[in-house]
Write a structure and sequence with these properties.
This protein is an alpha+beta fold and about 375 residues long. The protein is built from 5 helices and 17 strands. Strands 6-7-2-1-13-16-15 form a 7-stranded mixed β-sheet. Strands 8-9-10-17-14 form a 5-stranded antiparallel β-sheet, with no helix packed on it. Strands 4-3-5 form a 3-stranded antiparallel β-sheet.
């Protein structure tokens, strides 16, 4: 199995469930020293993105928890061009207008032949008697007729107004209600499968608050997790602090009983004594990789397809709001900060890098530092 195929197999279950851990609002600090000592701190939100965020799922449906509990005839939406749909989220409520009145038929009477010819085209006349030139005349007449029909079609399309909402008939309401009921059953079945898949991948049931609280308790038992509190809606408020020596690579976060790793921060040691600090989970515009792919996919599915009235919904992947500060007495070889290294008060040999990001276009912090 090649690397790309392996990554696809690895990431597919998460893409299908729409579930993964991402930062929320946070402040993070890192300190790297030439002697190999380091500290890392993260204080703020860790968000478990769940599929009931009113986002389209892989099958094109919406999580059953987000569908209205009972049917309301106002959810039936019909358009003047005979399109029909179910409004689950109240986008069209109260926006009911009468259908567009059909255009009046033209009065009966003799129509001049010239009125069918475009102004800039010659009128096609019947061919003269005789066999000579008959084929050419027929071709010219057919071309003129096609031009006329095209012009008439364009004029008719231009005169037709955009579709507007009309009142549904009783049969249309009944049909849409049946479609909605069937869809709710299907959504519930898909949600159950997704929950089982999530439990297998992440070791927790995100639809169960008790399970999420137990996960927070288990997480707090791990080294570095000083406090973990589940706030609801998939949001954990955490206080993480880790100190040690860089005799091996460092990754944050690591969750207990997890089979899937999506790091916010990584420190990668090099043989020449340098370390590469990457933060693929702190910003999504330029980091690529798995989280970047999920961000792109989620962005494509972050609007509910409801005809002309698309309603945007919250895309948590674009709601990351954080600050990251890195301090070091090593030699900063590369970095992608906006202002570059700055001096540190009271530490003449140290320099500091600072990133702030609350826009999807902000780059993921990255720097290469020579420690020895």
């Amino acid at each position: 199995m090649n690397r790309m195929r392996f990554l696809v197999v690895l990431i597919l279950p998460v893409l299908l469930t729409g579930c993964f851990f991402i930062p929320g609002k946070f402040v993070s600090n890192m300190d790297l020293r030439r002697d190999g000592g380091f500290t890392f701190a993260y204080k703020g939100e860790v968000v478990f993105q769940m599929p009931n965020e009113k986002m389209l799922g892989a099958g094109g449906g919406v999580a059953s928890a987000e569908l209205p509990k009972t049917w309301n005839d106002k959810m039936a939406v019909c358009w003047s061009n005979d399109d029909k749909e179910v409004d689950n989220f109240g986008i069209y409520e109260g926006d009911v207008a009468p259908a567009v009145a059909p255009a009046k038929a033209p009065k009966k009477g003799r129509t001049k032949f010239s009125s069918y010819a475009p102004a800039d085209e010659p009128i096609a006349l019947p061919p003269k008697s005789g066999k000579a030139g008959t084929a050419a005349d027929d071709a010219a007449q057919a071309a003129a007729q096609a031009t006329t029909e095209a012009a008439e079609g364009a004029a008719k399309a231009a005169d037709e107004p955009d579709p507007i909402i009309r009142k549904c008939t009783k049969k249309e309401i009944a049909d849409l209600k049946q479609e909605w009921e069937e869809g709710k059953i299907t959504a519930a079945e898909e949600e159950k499968k997704s929950t089982q898949m999530m439990a297998g991948i992440f070791g927790l049931d995100p639809t169960n608050p008790d399970a999420m609280n137990r996960f927070a308790s288990e997480l707090q038992k791990q080294a570095g997790w000083r406090s973990v509190v589940y706030k609801g809606d998939g949001v954990f408020l955490v206080d993480y602090y880790q100190t040690g020596r860089l005799d091996q690579d460092f990754v944050f976060p690591l969750f207990p009983d997890q089979q899937f790793l999506m790091p916010f921060v990584m420190i990668k040691r090099r043989a020449d004594g340098a370390v590469l600090v990457e933060t693929p989970g702190f910003a999504l515009a330029t980091n690529g990789g798995m989280i970047g792919a999920m961000a792109a996919m989620t962005d494509q599915t972050s609007k509910l397809d409801v005809g002309e009235g698309r309603k945007p919904v919250r895309n948590p992947l674009t709601n990351i709001d954080g600050k990251f500060t890195l301090t070091t007495d090593g030699e900063i070889l590369t970095n992608n900060t906006a202002d570059g290294p700055t001096a540190v008060a009271g530490q003449p040999a140290a320099r500091q890098l600072f990133w702030e990001f609350n826009d999807p276009k902000d780059p993921a912090p990255k720097t290469l530092i020579k420690l020895r």
